[in-house]
């Protein structure tokens, strides 16, 4: 039973992704997906949080569009959930952004209350308020803001991640070690730095404490990394704790749906993992009397996941 718990469309992440939400759903169905988690990025609250491509036509115009776009996304997703209910199990969520803790924590909590929302992904794309996965220039700015060393940036990232985990307790923890992407040495052994590794283990323990899942996110592979997220030493530590994985392509358009999925499944099997986890709505599609659907945790054997994929 193939699935993803993390996806984006160009319709609701313009400039960041491509293709309409419906076309992505249809493509996922054609590849054998049986569950599709929709997780467009949440709105941000300040012009300083915008990415460079969002500054036109004006930064304020972009900012003013974000909350209406989020509402349009939820309405569209709910309609598509109904339309394709006999072909695919659509979960409606969003990707949370932890930029300024208290402000964004409160906003994520409010957005998650919507009856149409099944779950959210807890993610960091910023450290010290600076994007860390956009380009090398901004990454270097973040390094300088954290004392001028990558070790300092890693420490700050995992400290801010702990704040997010403690406040939100997300069921799905997005790309746990995204901080590696723009690093001068993305494959470096984190255990070689006791302070950084101690924070990694501390954060894993927090996720295990509240019953969250790490996503095996294959997007790192398509971005040229040797391993997806999380890297092997982190995954091994998580497995020792008895932690569970979900599975995601983190696609940003049709061309990235299921990208490197076989490599990702092989990676998990090489770690001794035999199952991944997803969610299933108890009320599907839609809601009853404006109330959220209950959710069940569902185990999927990797063998079954692989067998259900229909890749070109």
Automatic annotation (TrEMBL):
NCBIfam families: hisJ_fam
Classification of source organism: Eukaryota, Fungi, Dikarya, Ascomycota, Pezizomycotina
GO cellular-component term (any): cytoplasm
Family: Belongs to the PHP hydrolase family. HisK subfamily.
Protein name: Histidinol-phosphatase
Domain of life: Eukaryota
Residues of the PHP domain: 5-219
Protein keywords: Amino-acid biosynthesis, Histidine biosynthesis, Hydrolase
Reactions catalysed according to its record: L-histidinol phosphate + H2O = L-histidinol + phosphate
Keyword Amino-acid biosynthesis appears in the UniProt entry: yes
GO biological process, one term: L-histidine biosynthetic process
Source species of the chain: Podospora anserina (strain S / ATCC MYA-4624 / DSM 980 / FGSC 10383) (Pleurage anserina)
Gene Ontology terms, MF aspect: histidinol-phosphatase activity
Pathway membership, UniProt: Amino-acid biosynthesis; L-histidine biosynthesis; L-histidine from 5-phospho-alpha-D-ribose 1-diphosphate: step 8/9
Assigned EC number: 3.1.3.15
Keyword hit for Cytoplasm: no
Signal peptide start and end residues: none
């Amino acid at each position: 039973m193939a699935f993803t718990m993390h996806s984006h469309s160009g319709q609701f992440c313009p400039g960041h992704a491509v293709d309409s939400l419906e076309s992505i759903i249809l493509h996922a169905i054609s590849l054998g997906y049986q569950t599709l988690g929709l997780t467009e990025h949440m709105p941000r609250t300040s012009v300083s949080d915008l990415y460079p491509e969002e500054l036109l036509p004006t930064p304020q115009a972009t900012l003013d569009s974000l909350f209406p776009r989020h509402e349009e996304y939820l309405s569209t997703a709910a309609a598509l959930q109904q339309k394709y209910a006999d072909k695919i199990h659509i979960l409606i969520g969003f990707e949370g952004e932890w930029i300024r803790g208290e402000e964004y924590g409160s906003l994520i909590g409010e957005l998650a209350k919507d009856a149409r929302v099944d779950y959210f992904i807890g993610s960091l794309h910023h450290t010290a308020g600076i994007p860390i996965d956009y380009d090398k220039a901004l990454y270097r700015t973040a390094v300088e803001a954290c004392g001028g060393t990558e070790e300092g940036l890693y420490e700050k990232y995992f400290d801010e991640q702990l704040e997010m985990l403690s406040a939100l307790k997300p069921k799905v923890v997005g790309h746990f070690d995204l901080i590696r992407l723009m690093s001068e040495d993305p494959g470096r052994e984190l255990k070689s730095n006791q302070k950084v590794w101690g924070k990694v283990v501390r954060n894993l323990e927090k996720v295990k404490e509240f019953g969250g899942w790490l996503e095996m996110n294959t997007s790192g592979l398509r971005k040229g990394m040797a391993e997806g997220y999380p890297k092997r030493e982190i995954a091994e530590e998580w497995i020792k704790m008895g932690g569970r994985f979900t599975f995601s392509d983190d696609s940003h358009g049709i061309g990235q749906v299921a990208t490197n999925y076989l490599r990702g499944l092989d990676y998990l099997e090489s770690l001794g993992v035999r199952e991944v986890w997803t969610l299933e709505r108890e009320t599907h599609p839609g809601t009853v009397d404006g109330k959220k659907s209950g959710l069940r945790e569902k185990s999927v054997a990797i063998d079954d996941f692989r067998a259900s994929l229909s890749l070109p």
